[in-house]
Every structure is written in structure tokens, then in C-alpha cells.
Amino acid sequence: MAVSSRTGLSYCIRSETACYRAGSSRTKEICVGLSYFSRNSSKTTPRLRLDNTRVGCKRSSKRFGFKRGQCLIVAASPPTEDAVIAAEPLTKEDLVGYLASGCKPREKWRIGTEHEKFGFELKTLKPITYEQIAHLLNGIAERFDWEKVMEGDKIIGLKQGKQSISLEPGGQFELSGAPLETLHQTCAEVNSHLYQVKAVAEEMGIGFLGIGFQPKWEREDIPIMPKGRYEIMRNYMPKVGTLGLDMMFRTCTVQVNLDFSSEADMIRKFRAGLALQPIATALFANSPFTEGKPNGYLSMRSQIWTDTDNNRAGMLPFVFDDSFGFEHYVEYALDVPMYFVYRKKKYIDCSGLSFRDFMDGKLPHLPGDFPTLNDWENHLTTIFPEVRLKRYLEMRGADGGPWRRLCALPAFWVGILYDEVSLQNIIDMTADWTPEERQMLRNKVPATGLKTPFRDGLLKHVAQDVVKLAKDGLERRGFKETGFLNEVAEVVRTGVTPAEKLLELYHGKWGKSVDPVFEELLY
């Protein structure tokens, strides 16, 4: 499907500096940055005041916030609080402008990789407790000079520069990497992180497992992390799906975050990402066990998302509508039920409530209170489609896996989405795929992987063409990055997914025990 720039749907942003004299209670003159959001219009209106904030500070592609006199990168919970002050209620144009602010020229495109892993006791294979995790975080902070992230008196993460370590609901250990220029840098970052974690963890008798779903333990065996937002999610999930708690406590993923240059570029990459996401799910399928037995799926992690909360997950067919753009995504996100609002260092449970009502100051829990851009940013993190739009695009369809696959996943997507020739080939290849076909692949791939029938052949045959395009794209980048695709090249050559290799070991060498997987996929 061809994409062209459409009149009336292209947003741009410009910033100016202006000085205002405060009201009667404050006579101090302050200089602030004003963002103007326009929609192909000569009329511009100031929307936001950044309270005593240094104008022109560089914002990371990760979460951001503002404090007086500095630019603060916020990489983990708790989110920034009351940082951007609304001079007047936010409008939809402000929300659209926030997404559009992610547009950047090609030379500033970066690669951000995130991956999660399960911690376990080497002797018993049991999941590690929060107390063990806290000891591990403190050890990494002290030995490798990371800054601690606290929620109340509990350590819940670390940050160092533009990297952060955070905890998922069941103690899954997540690295959110810095935005980097090449896959060599990305893989080096992964290796450095794993070295640091292992240096402290081995002294504690702890190992980490690279797999997409907890293979041995029941949900009741998994510890609960002391993070306020997770308590709200834990109470809400059973109301909207049957597998949400399993998603929270027993899954691990690897994802890559990539940039776009314009609204039209975002649309092309979003569509390519959604169309190919089932292929990525198949290539990286690595979660065939549940509670010590085969579960009937190659990617149980992917299957779980089909009944977690369909108001905030899925394949987003509207992305393929001719009218799609930043504004359409904002309309979608406004209708995704809220989880929380963060005020005065506390999470306020707003689960199931409307962000549209919040925009009108009519949120029952906070009457008369209006959202800030921080609230909007936090809300966007509670939406979980196969591809997610923030100020960059997140590819979310892959299972967690061993370290070589942590480098292969970003290589796959960078080769396709950061090369114009490969991206256009994908757009052409998938242009006549129907919404029903895309959804069929989404539904069937978790169970049948690359052997999923598609048109006159198997998904394996499409995946072979796609991996070839990814390799060609990496070659044209000129950074000698094609070696990072070796892991997936072998998968498409044989048609055998990582999960099927694990199942073969389970039925053969392992004697129908899952315990050896903790050694097989140990970092």
C-alpha cells in the first residue's frame, strides 16, 4: 500500500523562547519555552508552560521529565510528578504534537534495545525473591556505579546515563538500553550488562534464564514486586482477560525501539512492523513449556497476549486505514482505559476510567484536575499492541532468549525499517495482505510458527524473503552488521524455531524434564 503525505494530516512543531511577568503573587520575570503545535495552519497557539525550565535541553527518546534548572531523564518508576505544568487544559493537538516531536532526521536515528530475563536460584531453580533482587541491585549499583531508583524505601531499579534497569511485576530483570547508532554498540551494551549482572549474581548463587515464559513454576510461586502501578494492574487484569496475570508474572520479551523521520515515515514503518510481527514471533518463538510440561504452543508468551486485555493489545487494523496518522493513534489511545495517575508520590487507581474525561477535568478520582504531558506519556506506556507508538516505534512481538538472539532481534528490524529499499520492498510485499490474513497469522503463529500455512505455501517461505531483505538492508548500512542475523538465518533455513529445538531436547535428551532448560538457556 503506497503512503503519501496527506494535506491536513501533517504535524510540525517549532519552539520559541518568551518571557512572562508572573502575576501579583510573584513579580519575578521568568523565561520559558513555548511549544507551538500546528496542523498545516498559519495560526499557532501557545499551549504549555515549562515552569522555570532550561529551554533547549536535549530530550532522550526514553521517558523524560523536567525539574527546575535542569533536564532530567526518568528511566524507571515512579514517573515524574507534576513536571510539565499545563497553563491551560491540554488539547488533542498537544497530544498529537507530543507524538510528532519524535520525528528526527535520518542521521539522528538510533537503536534502543530492551530485554527481560528470569532470575532463579542455581541450586533449587526457584524464582528469586524481592529481597534477593534488592541485594543484587544494590550490589550492581555499588560495584558498577549505577544510580539507585527508589519507590518509597524500596529499591526498584537503577539508572546510568541513558540506560536503566527495572523490575517487571514478577521480578523479571529488564535492561532498557541507551539509544545507540550501530548494532555493534547495541550488542556490546548487552554483553556489558550481562557481565555486570553475572558478576554480582554468581556470588549470590543466582542465575538468569533467557526464555519467553516461565517453564517450571506456577504463578503462585512468583514473587510480587513492591511497585504501586503493578498492584493496580494486578487487581484490574482479571476483570478484562483470563491471562493478564500470567503476562505480568510469567513472561519475558526482547524488543527494539526505532525512530522515524516524519508522519509518513512513521506510517510506513508502523504498517511494515505490524504485518511482519507474526514472522518475528515465529523466528524468536521460545516459550513452549508451562509448569514443567509442553503447553501446546511455540510462543506461549505471544498466545497470552490474545487474552490479556484486548482493549489495549492486538494488531491495530486501523493503522492500515488511509486516514491513519498521529491524530488517529491519539484517538485510539484516548479510548484505552486508564490504569493510574501519579500524584504526590502515590499511584491513584483510575483503572477502567477515561483519559478523555481526565482531559475535561472530570476524572471522578481527581475532580477539577487536568492531565499533564507526563500523564499522557505514562498512559501511553500502558498500551500493549504488537507495535506501539510513542515518540518512537516499539517492535513487541518476540520472546526473550539467549544473548545472541538479543542482538539478532534489533538486527532483523533495523535491516528492514532503517533501509529505504528493504522497507519499500516490505510495503510492496504486504500491500495486498488483508486484515483477516494479518489476524490469522497473529492467531496461528504462536502454535504453528513458521509452519503456519499462508496462501500457497508456508510462512517459512515468506520469512526467508524477509530475512534476505533484512540482510540486504544491513549490508547497505555499511557497518558490517549482517553477522548479527546468523541466529535467525539458521531458523529460516531449516524452518525449525528455537521452541521446537527445546521440545526435541525435552522429548529426547532431557527425559521429559524441563529442569535442563535452566542450564541450556542460562546467561
Shape: globular
> What structural category do the secondary elements indicate?
alpha+beta
Count the E strands: 23
Distance N terminus to C terminus? 42 Å
What is the strand content?
Answer: 15-25%
What is the rounded Rg? 23 Å
Helical coverage, percent range = 25-40%
Low-pLDDT runs of 5+ residues are 1-10, 12-77
Largest sheet: 9 strands, antiparallel
Give me the number of helical elements: 17
**What number is the mean pLDDT?**
88
Secondary-structure blueprint:
Blueprint: E1 11-21, E2 29-39, E3 48-49, E4 64-67, E5 70-73, E6 85-86, H1 92-100, E7 111-121, H2 130-144, E8 147-151, E9 154-160, E10 163-167, E11 173-176, H3 183-201, E12 206-209, H4 228-240, H5 244-250, E13 253-258, H6 263-283, E14 289-290, E15 293-294, H7 300-304, E16 313-314, H8 326-335, E17 340-343, E18 346-349, H9 355-359, H10 373-380, E19 384-385, E20 387-389, E21 393-399, H11 403-417, H12 420-430, H13 435-448, E22 453-454, E23 457-458, H14 459-477, H15 486-494, H16 498-507, H17 517-520
Parallel strand pairs: 16-19
Antiparallel strand pairs: 1-2, 3-6, 4-5, 7-11, 7-12, 7-13, 8-9, 9-10, 10-11, 13-21, 14-15, 17-18, 20-21, 22-23
Helix pairs in contact: 1-8, 2-3, 3-11, 6-11, 6-12, 6-13, 11-14, 12-14, 14-15
Could you provide a short overview of the structure?
This protein is of the alpha+beta class and 523 residues long. Helices cover 37% and strands 20% of the residues.
